[in-house]
Amino acid sequence: MKKHILVTTLAGLVLVFAFSCQDISSHRKKTQGTDPALEKKVSALVSRMTLEEKVGQMTQITLDKFYKETLDTALLHEYIVKYGLGSVLNSHHDKSGMTVALSMQEWRALQTRIQKYARETRLKIPVLYGIDAIHGVTYLKGATLFPQNIALAAARDPSVVHAAAKITAKEVRACGIRWNFDPVVGVGRQPLWSRFEETFGEDPYLVGELGEAVIRGYEEDGLDKPTAVASCMKHYLGYPVPLTGKDRTPAYIPEIVLRQIFLPPYKKAVEAGASTVMINSGSINGIPVHASRYLITDVLKEELGFTGLVVTDWQDIIYLRDQHHVAKDNKEAVMMAVNAGIDMSMVPYDLSFYHDLIALVREGKVPMSRIDDAVTRILRVKYRLGLFDNPFPEKGTEDYYEKPGYKEVALQAAREAVTLLKNDTLQGNPVLPLSNKMRLLVAGPGANSRAMLNGSWSYSWQGKDESLYPAEVPTIRQALEEKFGKNKVINIAPDGFQNVSPQQVSMLRKYAPQADAIILCLGENSYAESPGSIDDLTLPEDQLLLAEAAAKTGKPVILILTEGRPRIINRIVPSMNGILLAYRPGNMGAPALAEVLEGEVNPSGRLPYTYPRYTGNLMTYDMPVRAAQYYRPQWPFGFGLSYTTFRVTSLKADKDTLQSGDTLLVTAVVKNSGPRDGAVALDLFVRDMTATVAPPMRKLRKFTRLALKSGETKKVTFALTDEDWTFIDPSLKPRIEAGKMRVLLGNKEVEFFLKK
Ligand code: BGC
Ligand code: BGC
Question: Are residues 294 and 443 in the same domain?
Fold first, then answer.
């Protein structure tokens, strides 16, 4: 199977972008337990293992457990050699409780030590080490940090996502590590949620396509190659939509919605060959996912055919008792989780799982067949990763660290992500781009903050500590000085993120008369997971006041929003003259923003989510028609301006009537009718005009990016198939119904009749 998007220039040149699914399927064969030679090795080893050795393999402990002031090598040795620990994760904490970034050499030395200990065990089974390299290698000093997923999703460019993943894989391997707890393929449909920035946004198709690009980037070279890492799709299933909006609180999701919206990206990830999966900490309809045999075994392992390793999230078996209160004690929690289909427990601090599971098997409460299945899945990944051949950091992989070309990819991704939301015309001219002769007043908590650019999982878990960022990472203020000249930039912003003080406001009033424009950097400081939970989606009052003061100066105000989720700003939108959304653009985000402000780069990002206008109106774009009448966002899904104008001049389907099973070719002609060269991201939607289950207003079915010179016209052809009009019916089965369909692109639409 190949996915095609054809781009034809009017000169007749045909460019075919085809992602070959061939590579994916051969990769999948290896990952999904259909390689007989590998299966033989694994089962031979399992048959030689004692119960204790098996349960040891299923136990994962955090590195922090082994740190007092320094590494307690005796304790580490004891866990690995005496208990046969299967996996270690994460970095350790410093005195203040912050997770520490290590140097590449420290990581390599640690991996070498761990694998040496593993060689002392009876069966010499190597340890599988896992870390979070979420937008680059979180706990590696000097690692390349890319934009967060929410920004990458705005770029609508799987190739840049893929390139970033390949670099991340290499930097993980440079550390001697082979397992990355990434990508997040949850669909971000609750903007209050503190992990929104880790998602690819609100549309399941977009999430699925980009998740697949990441998994290919991590795994396609073959896990035994030193350029690959095992991926971990997470957090299965339904984590992004807690009813309260607070992290790790219950979700209530009808199964028809689970299957329509949340399951498809996992299906795609399994098909792309994802080796491992992490389970959602929360509950769905009252059942913690860690205790759901239905979701883990019946749906994931059996229905989707996932043969990889299932790991819990942090402490989540213990939480079945302590937080969910569905188990009376830890032993019951272990029984529930393992019988549900958990293969490895991220315990992560003690041996409670180990001891309880051994007892449960002896008492016949967990069948040995379940244990064997779990261990098979763990060993399969370890074999495939080449850990049995050489578990140590390979020679040569040091060179994968910090290559100059990496920054280019991070910069390119940020350039493509930045989304222009507003551009007023003042005295006959658009306010953006700015002339490089202008003097700029730079204000606001984002101007001198690297943490704000990066967000979660950035050299520390919370990403907040400014001192951990490499000094050469430019802040927005520095990037503007570089681009416009130091003498053109008046900086009144504090160092690092600080709430806006009344003094800041008066400084802004004082210096505004000296400037031609105000660059106002607002948004959110960094946060990760539960500490990022909020009660109000509105941008904090102190920042709104600063914006109002800026507007009152009478100078043009350009708002740069750096934020992980859409903070509501309706009060200030009318008075801002230009608005650029940077999301979390990463370490190269500031230079990308400066290029966009100055006009060297023409912005092309498109919102991967609905930007809400009101706190009481949090809707996604793909609502059924009766809800859609209330869709009143600040900016809709897919919104994004440019310094030029793109027009879809025609949209045609190759058939009026389509027989289900056949392919419909839809061709759009797109013209850059404005004064500048630029790129345009095209979103193609399908609307089912009548269906048994109230159809959404529109569903994203394809997207692509095109570069067009000023005046240039290109033709793009999209191939649509049954998958594009399949929906989940009331009996929870995929269904296609005959009837009228509408295809929408830009302001054009075309209809056809689907026959069954
Ligand atoms: C760890 C994170 C983990 C979190 C869970 C932190 O100490 O570094 O990886 O997700 O605890 O609460
Ligand atoms: C997070 C996961 C992460 C794990 C290990 C958990 O708290 O939810 O996303 O992979 O910690 O750090």
Answer: no
**CATH label of the domain that carries residue 747:** 2.60.40.10
Cα separation, 188 vs 627, in Å, equals: 19
- Pair (241, 301) in one structural domain: yes
Identify the three-state secondary structure at position 441. Answer: strand
Nearest CA to ligand 1 atom 5: 314
Residue 486 and residue 357 in one domain: no
Question: Is 461 a pocket residue for ligand 1 (Cβ < 6 Å)?
Answer: yes
Ligand 1 pocket, 643 CB below 6 A? no
> How much distance in Å is there from the Cα of 641 to the middle of ligand 1?
38
Task: Verify that 368 and 430 share a domain, yes or no.
Answer: no
Confidence of residue 2 (pLDDT cuts 50, 70, 90): very low
CA of 132 to the centre of ligand 1 (A): 10
CA 257 from chain center: how many Å? Answer: 21
Beta bridge partners of 344: 311
Residue 546 lies in a domain: yes
**What is the helix (H) or strand (E) element at residue 682, kind and residue range?**
strand 678-688
Pairwise CA distance, residues 557 & 559, whole Å: 6
| Per-residue pLDDT tens over the stretch 630-686 | 999 999 999 999 999 999 999 999 999 999 999 999 999 999 999 999 999 999 999
Domain count, the chain: 3
Active site residue 313: yes
Preceding peptide of 433 cis, ω within 30°: yes
Residue nearest to atom 6 of ligand 2 (CA): 314
Between residues 396 and 404, the one the model is more confident about: 396
Q: Looking at residue 306, what is its pLDDT?
A: 98
- What is the CB < 6 Å shell around ligand 2? 89-90, 132, 181, 234, 278, 313-314, 529
C-alpha of residue 314 to centroid of ligand 2, in Å? 6
| 419-423-429-434 Cα dihedral, nearest 10 degrees | -50
pLDDT over 90, % of the chain: 94
Residues whose CB falls within 8 Å of the CB of residue 105, separated by 6 or more in sequence, listed in order: none
293 and 427 inside one domain: no
Mark whether 483 and 384 lie in a shared domain: no
- Probe target for ligand 1 pocket from 313, 461, 464, 527, with the most ligand atoms within 8 Å of CB: 461
Write the CATH number for 314: 3.20.20.300
Question: Of residues 313, 316, 343, 356, which has the active-site annotation?
Answer: 313
* CA pair distance 328, 522, nearest whole angstrom: 47
460 within ligand 1 shell (Cβ under 6 A):
no
Structure tokens at 705: 């990016």
Provide the residue range defining the domain that includes 497. Answer: 422-583
